[in-house]
Structure formats: C-alpha cells, structure tokens
Write a structure and sequence with these properties.
Length: 419
C-alpha cells in the first residue's frame, strides 16, 4: 500500500470472541501466538486471514486469481483439451515460462515453476492460446530439445565413467547444455516464443491481484502494490495453549466385545480468546490498480468488507465449530492515513468472570476517542459501527444495526468521494 494524503483508506476493526479452537496452527500444530505488551497472546496470522478473505472476495465477484507453481501443468491441461499430446503440452507450458526470460524463474524437478506465481485465472487461457499459435514450432522444439538433452546426458555419463573417447563427433562440446533439458528448453523457447507477449500475460492483473498485490523477483513490471493491508489478529488479553487428550474407539473391535481400549489416542492443542483484528483497504490505490475502473473497485470494496467480517478461519473446524460473528465491527473511512487501534490492548485486558468482551469493547471506544483528540477528525470522512453488542459507542460513529446497511453506508460514501 502506498500512503498518499488525499487517498481514501477504509479501516476495518473487529472484536470477535472465539471458543475453544485452533484457528491458525504453527508448524508444531499448536495455535499461533505472539508476545505483546509483556504477555503472550493468541494470534491469527495475516497471511492466513488474507488468503481466506481473498478467496471469499473472488467467489463473490467471480474474478479469480491463482497463486501456484503449477502454471505449466494448468496450461498443459488446457492444451490437452484442444487435442495436444500430453508430454508436448507440458513442454509447451514450461517453454512459455522460460520464454519470459525472468532471472531466477525456471522449472523445478516437480515440472512446475520454482517459485509461486500469482496470475489472473484468465492468464492461463491466454498462455494456452499463445502456445496454440506456435504449435508446430513447439512440437518440433520439444522433440529436438529432448534429443539434445539425452545426447548431452550420455556424454556426461561417459565422461564420469571414463570409458574412452567420445564416439559422437557431431556434439559440439562448446555448445553442450550443462543444466539438462530445462536449459535446452530455455534456448528453444527464446528462439520461437515472443518474450514480450509472454511477459505481458505474466504482468496482467485483475481485481484480486489489484487488491492483494503481487511481487515477482527480478521482474519489476509484474509487481503490484496491494491495496489491502492486514494485521495479525491478537487476543486482547493474555492467552495460553490448552492441551486436549483424546481417544478414538475402534467400532468393530467394540462390537465384537474383544477390545475395551482405544483404537487411537493422542493430543491436540487449542486456545480460546477474544481477538482484535484490523485491516485497511486503500480504495484509491485499488481503483488505480484497476486502471480507473471505479465500478469494479466499489464491488471489490463491498465484498472485501463483507468477507473480512464474515469469513471464518477453518482450521480444525470439524472438531470445534468456531463459527462466531464479531461482537463489534467498526469501520472508518479516512482521507489522511490508515489508523490501527491495537494500542488499546497493549496493556492486556485482565481476567474477569464477565469475560473479555465488555472490557475489550470499552477499550476500543476509549482508544478511538484518544486518536480523535490527538489527530483531529478532519481526515475522518465518515465512520460507523455495528455488531452483536447492543451498546452505542460514542467515539465509533453512528451505530448501524445490520452489516449490509453498514456496507452500503461505506460504499455509497466511497462512491461519492471517488467521483
């Protein structure tokens, strides 16, 4: 996100309580955590939150992008449906990647790319179309490259085994490939496929790329500064990991009456917490990334707000059903800069038999008021709140009863400001 005075920033703040669950696991399978304000907190990673929010936005808008190493395979599948031989189709997908000539971007042993690419789904069809235009050349190049790589491999084997002189004088040692078939394919790809057209497809963007951004090392033209910025969610209070010992019964053994013990046993780790979550959408940058398409920008803005509020992180959902909704949603449309209110919880909310939600709500209201006093309200275009909590919070703007009304209020204001 580029911070530019005069841009429109949509700040979204959530207070949401989750039951005993494991929404976001670390590599040991435990709930993620972070130290903040001198105590350990439960954490929801921004990466996980962005992915699930992005997929929800894509499902709602029908505008999908794919983050994958499997572009060659996806292109090959499309070519296969057009009658291409399977091996040649996969080679075509790989040659398209190599034709881009991006330093460091190549083909891995898995036959996919050696780095994740983030592309509009339509780009896969465009790559397949480009391959179709060069089908004859690609088919011949695939055969030639395979033969050349095989010849080079045989020569290398003879050198290692020291079996005597090379009986094949036709292989020019000075031009011998040293990296196997991938490097040979790159040579042929550079000759027969138009680099500029391939790069144009790799650089293409849609609403999802415009919102969530993209970076491809060594290819500046593909980089898109994402309009969405999302913080790691943190519990408003100290939180600890809790251990759940469980057993699973073997039904057949139990029915036979031959076994009374467990068929399986183990332990899982969970936590329960009230989270503060925050995200900011630079609406002006989103529209700019969409080349001025305000209509799509407004659609994405509405769906992003809806998705961030309603999407559930699904880890271990089958055993915990953590399908809660926020007690509070506070949305502020600003023209000066994004403002996170996480500082309200730098001092952890203390334990209480009343729970953490009431104090968390009050803290947010107080902290927002402090920001209004310090920064002033000239940069605050509009703000409002909604959610399960029945109270009205003075520093959080007008209380609106329903989420859809809150979304409409914000999107209508954005539309007026953008125009």
């Amino acid at each position: 996100m580029t911070l530019t005075p005069g841009s429109l920033y949509l700040d979204v703040h959530l207070i949401q309580s989750y039951p005993y669950s494991n929404l976001n696991r670390d590599r040991q399978g435990a709930p993620k955590s972070a130290r903040y304000g001198g105590v350990m907190r439960a954490r929801q990673s921004s990466q996980n939150g962005k992915r699930h929010t992005r997929r929800a936005v894509e499902n709602a808008t029908g505008i999908r992008a794919v983050r994958t190493r499997g572009v060659p395979r996806a292109v090959a599948e499309r070519l296969g449906r057009r009658g291409w031989d399977g091996e040649v189709a996969l080679t075509a997908g790989q040659m398209l990647i190599l034709a881009a000539g991006v330093k460091g971007l190549g083909i891995a042993d898995s036959q996919g790319t050696n780095a994740l690419l983030f592309l509009p789904e339509s780009a896969l069809d465009q790559l397949a179309d480009l391959a179709d235009q060069h089908r004859v050349e690609i088919t011949q190049a695939a055969s030639d490259a395979a033969a050349e790589a095989e010849k080079a491999a045989k020569k290398a084997t003879r050198r290692v085994s020291n079996d005597g002189p090379d009986p094949d004088p036709d292989l020019d040692e000075a031009e011998e490939p040293v990296l196997g078939e991938s490097s040979v394919l790159a040579k042929y790809a550079a000759k027969i496929l138009p680099k500029a057209e391939v790069l144009k497809i790799l650089q293409s963007r849609n609403a999802s790329v415009a919102a969530f951004g993209r970076m491809l090392a060594n290819e500046a033209g593909s980089t898109v500064d994402g309009a969405v910025q999302m913080a790691h969610g943190l519990s408003t209070h100290a939180a600890s990991t809790q251990l759940d010992y469980f057993t699973a019964v073997d039904d057949i053994l139990q029915d036979e009456g031959t076994e009374t013990g467990a068929g399986h046993m183990g332990d899982n780790r969970y936590t329960s917490a009230t989270f503060y979550r925050y995200a900011s959408l630079n609406v002006s940058e989103l529209v700019g990334n969409l080349d001025g398409d305000t209509e799509t920008g407004l659609q994405v803005t509405a769906e992003f707000l809806r998705a961030f509020v309603t999407t559930v992180l699904p880890a271990k959902a089958s055993g915990t059903a953590p399908f809660t909704v926020p007690h509070l949603v506070y949305v502020a449309l600003r023209s000066d800069r994004p403002v996170s209110l996480v500082g309200a919880y730098e001092s952890a909310v203390p334990d209480s038999t009343k729970g953490y939600v009431p104090a968390s709500l009050a803290r947010l209201d107080e902290h927002a008021a402090a920001h209004h006093r310090f920064l002033g309200t000239d940069g605050l275009v509009t703000h409002a709140h909604s959610g399960l909590a029945g109270e009205t919070f003075e520093a959080l703007g007008e209380r609106i009863d329903g989420l859809e009304q809150l979304i409409s209020r914000m999107v209508d204001t954005v539309a007026k400001e953008q125009v």
